[in-house]
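Example 3.
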Amino acid sequence: MLTERQKEILKIIVLEYIKLAKPVGSNLICDTLNCSSATIRSEMAALEELGLLEKTHTSSGRVPSEKGYRYYVDNLMEIKKMSAEDMLKLQIIFHNNQLQFNDCVAESLKLISEMTNYTSIKLGSASHENTLKEISIVPLNDDNLIVIVVTNMGYVEHKNISLPNVDINDVKKTVNLINNMIVGTPIDEVSEKLEFEIKPIIANYVEEHEKLYNAFYNVFNNFASKNVDVIGKRNILKHKEFDNIEKVSRILDKFEDDNIASLVDEIKERGSDINIYIGKENNIDDDMTVIETSYKTPQEEGKLVVVGPKRMDYDRVVALLEFIKENIENQGDR
Amino acid sequence: MLTERQKEILKIIVLEYIKLAKPVGSNLICDTLNCSSATIRSEMAALEELGLLEKTHTSSGRVPSEKGYRYYVDNLMEIKKMSAEDMLKLQIIFHNNQLQFNDCVAESLKLISEMTNYTSIKLGSASHENTLKEISIVPLNDDNLIVIVVTNMGYVEHKNISLPNVDINDVKKTVNLINNMIVGTPIDEVSEKLEFEIKPIIANYVEEHEKLYNAFYNVFNNFASKNVDVIGKRNILKHKEFDNIEKVSRILDKFEDDNIASLVDEIKERGSDINIYIGKENNIDDDMTVIETSYKTPQEEGKLVVVGPKRMDYDRVVALLEFIKENIENQGDR
DNA sequence: CCTAGCACTTTCTTTTTCACAGTGCTAATA
DNA sequence: TATTAGCACTGTGAAAAAGAAAGTGCTAGG
């Protein structure tokens, strides 16, 4: 159990380090608290003993440890009101009746990325949670057409396919078959159903049924496994701690990875509204913090995620995410 | 006019520098050519006088100048055969009957990026060259639906919109109106036509016509202006000359820029098959080279672009692009 | 329990030194 | 006349040395 003064000191160090990214010395603190630097130093030594602070070298100032950040987040962080500026900008988005609900989410995440210089991620439902809602085609010319697949969660994917020597009416019939027989199936399982339920039927009356079947099979087989949108990847470059190419590469690779959804998703619920995973607590990177919340509206459910350096402006991001989550859930049915 | 030996020297320097990214000294060259380093040095001085070579400092070896690369590309580069390995990998893609034509292009560019560590760009036709082919909707639930827009060039875009209190049949009627009256219009001009041709009609019989109109208006008004795909952005990180965060940031910003299409597109045709724009010759970045070719098939036309450091493996990229272009144009109608 | 004072440590920056790679020039040579 | 050997010179990069700055831990006294 920390004394009040220790808490005070830890808090100052965390906030100061977040602001300037420089180890914090005892002098800076004794200005704020009314006591000498020597006193602070012995307190800092105690906090280090507890694993809440770290030194970068024997005679450096202190830096919060991962445990230190965690303590701050759990016990010290005050729920800060959003700055008037942040508030205003977000409200403009949510009160813009021109914007569709969906765009509001995307726009607000984009705004968060811009304002904070962190990276945000919008995570829709996974493919196994999506079922086939409808498939349709648009013929472009004799040989080429576009197949459009829509899932019940409103996820859309399309593909350009070319089917020379296949009668367009056969294609249409096949589409009808799919729409009649397979709609409602989880996207994951569609290609399987195609093989066992559709293929045998079209084999009977379509000349080039092999070609036709393959085309549709591919559409579903390569269906993107996740509905995920990463916004502001390059922001990582703007932070002091990522000042060398290897680190930056490592993180950018993670962001680009198709698997990022699972990295974020694997995180077990902590139960509360907004979850914070610091450093090793998350699967993205030991040097990063992930702040995450989920939302649910009649139309859609998903997760909003903000990823930044451990030295992150926790208060602000939490306030922003809370605001957005609330607005999404309330305005979802406007 | 250069002497044969000067050409020889320039060529060696360009190739060597491309390989190792280190200024090339006279000793290295006199091994290859049978003469002393002093001779080479006076030749190098002459080439520098002509602006084809540069020094990094008074007593360094030589580095090709922009003009030097240009001379190499225009006069010295031999059309190299592709390596067996490159050839094989690409052929696998183009001979894979599973893959749709469209995917071949994307896959081969992806492969180029991976093999060369440069960035490639697939540039489809601009929005003003696309006309509306068809619009369709998929209702998701009472209030929400998806609008799908397809252009004659096979470009597809979709948008989730919510229209509470609007009768789905009114929406369908509106879609029919659009499909009957506006199909064939350049995408750019659709929102205008909506206003003057569709809006007055639906105003008569649709209660919430304002909402409905706005929704469709937005779909078209925000239609992506370019059909562009940038592959392997992060490859820039792998090159020696981009070893600091500012440079990397600058370039990555360019890649992310929605305007990248125009940066590449503005380039005036040089008339030949494959165009090379070195450093200041291109609009992307003075430190980069852009190699570009266009293709045209019955289904689609567009540009293939490879972007990398000026110190780029010109021979290889040209060979790769030539191969792909040829395969696209021949196999486009398979 | 707090604080003033001081010796000590590490980093960071600057300066010095040194070997190296490569140049330009000159005078001799084929 | 073109080439070459020889040599003085120059900028770079790495390593070593020196000094300043920031901050700590400890001790003794209030």
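Residues 35-39, 42, 56-60 of chain B lie near DNA strand D (CB under 10 Å from a C1'). The longest strand of chain B covers residues 288-296.
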